[in-house]
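Aim 2 progress update. The chain analyzed this quarter is reproduced below.
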Amino acid sequence: MNSIAKMIDHSLLHPTLTDNELKAGCELAAKYRVACVCIKPYAVRDAAEWLEKTDVAVGTVIGFPHGSSCTNIKVQEAEQACRDGAEELDMVINIGKALSEDWDYAQREIEAIHNAAKANGALLKVIFENDFLTQDQYKIRLCEICSEISVEYVKTSTGYGFVKQKDGSYNYFGATDRDLQLMRKHSSSRVLLKAAGGIRTLDDVLRVQALGATRIGATATEAILLEAQRRGIE
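Predicted structure tokens:
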């Protein structure tokens, strides 16, 4: 179970989560000794205090969930998060710029946030939000840029990238097998892969692990780990 736990970033990002629920989420993360909690930015300082005597890293999000903030604001978010105790940052790219194929902008922004993270001893995970990227070429170019910059992780989704479907409803696919294979293929071996969006069961975790993911974002952390325990998976 420990090897599965150390793949998990326990997600505490839903806008309705209360302060008490955030604290309970951190306590759950500490109980199971997951890799990281990814908590709402305003609560980073509290999470750092709650998790101070554990081996669970504190993470948060930058430009979440739509990635549309100005670059300098994202950099300030990153710096503030690090001052508050964040050790891992999950940033959303500027999706409109990627769809516009303004790759110079995308590269400058990712590099600026990566530099801010490095200067503060934090690692960076770059969220593509694949449901919005309608062509493979966008994802491939982002993998190439992230490899050139040597970010620590590329990541599939926020889990909040809802797209209007043909029936008028809003939903998302999240971490699909095809996207994970594409991202692993086109990223440097130095760049790790995080799968997020729709990972709710142990079998989901094992599936994305087999495709090269070494981290996952999950809200169903306890259910996943209890199932791993039941099945005797270390």
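The radius of gyration is 17 Å. The domain at 2-230 is CATH 3.20.20.70 (TIM Barrel). These observations will guide the mutagenesis experiments scheduled for the next reporting period.
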